[in-house]
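Board notes (copied after class):
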Amino acid sequence: MFPSRSLGTHEEWQIKYGKTFRFQGFGRHDFRMMSFDFRAISHILNSPTYEKPWQTRALLARLIGRGIFSMEGSEHKFQRRLIGPAFTHLSVKSMAPIFLQKAQQLCDRWDALFPEHFSETDSYLSDFPPAYDAVEADVERAQGVTIDVAQWISRASFDVIGLAGFDYKFKALDDGSEEVYGAYRRMFDVADKGPRLRGILELYFPIIRTLWPDHGTKVTNESLRIIDKAGKKLISAKKASIVAETSKRESQQKDILSLLSTLILLILLLCTDIKALTVKANLSNDSSKRLSDKELLDQCSTFLLAGSDSVSLALSWCLHFLSLNPEIQTRVREEISSIAAAVPSVIDDDDLFIPITPAPKKRFRASATPPPTYRTATHQSICDSWDQIEASPYLDAVVRETLRLCPPVHSTIRVATADDQIPISHPVVLQDGTIVKNGESISIRKGSYIHIPIEGLNLSTEIWGSDALEFK
């Protein structure tokens, strides 16, 4: 529950109780299971017997409705099958221009926070990496300026998800005043505070939210109203666009909303025709197996909730670790710089998918190296450069090490929907003293909660060695 305390607790509990044990949750009768046994965890996460608890799904549904993260069972599988095509390697690769454009815009906004950082007469040093005396001078001139890295990256993430996922411009990096972005941000800020006692009571007695709404409830309700209104317009416009240019969309558009909307339209159009018999197996004339407009909007909220703050948290920690490890920072910078010249610059949202030649502009970078030269970019050339970025081994290692030390989701929980036998690979001592040996199974009752300590596994000295807490 508390990452600040769980770091040492996980190690202590493993030493004292073993890899799999029972512990107390809320109240003296709320016993739960926690496991660091990979065989047990694999069984739990891959068996349909275990689902996210209804309490977790209810809290998520309050924000994202019937999104993929708040669904379980057949509904979850159905939504996952529909959304899957938008996350293939080729689909993600086609979004590379958006990633690069927003990363460049974020750097520009950070540069602007240092108005006196470089004057027009400042010259750039030719050596790379930058000389330490130049870096020291930069730091002195920028002293006193504080950048909220997490907040800025979260804004950039909103912009990326909006454009790549739904072809919507939140303009969060511009000024953050766009209405829908503000609604999402306020709603997520309320959620970040946690459910607290009132939130838990509302899970069991939802009428409280209606009869005695508090400030958080009012903010959430108003935000949902704004999102719903804008979402309906977005979906209607997307459907109209698909109907008018279906053939063109199939060859060019790959965003999530397009794929989901197309499926719905095909169902509606084909299932009223005798030739509907030829429709693919995953297109059903059963209304219970279609996504409504509301469910489409729920998917939008799902990806914004899951993608904005989690990305912000991970990248913020990554930059923090690099700032504490200049040798690693220099090495990853050299690797990126080796392909930087081949990565085109993309400036305008409206030009993401056509050749562009950005207008010259003054740039003042917090670096002793000259700024990149803008040149004409095409969608294909950017995607080709993206392959080089993905193939950067040291950058990949830095990202993976960051996610190991600071996973955005530090744990997860499942509940058994039926009695089950969980296989183990490490001995377990039961309450009566019986020892369940390696290769045998332990019994779990229906309704039992099981905690998966992601952070505990990531920081385990048994798995990663005595230096598991070091960034290396």
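Comment from the instructor: Confidence is low (pLDDT under 50) at residues 117-132, 263-284, 349-376. The CA atoms of residues 49 and 211 lie 37 Å apart.
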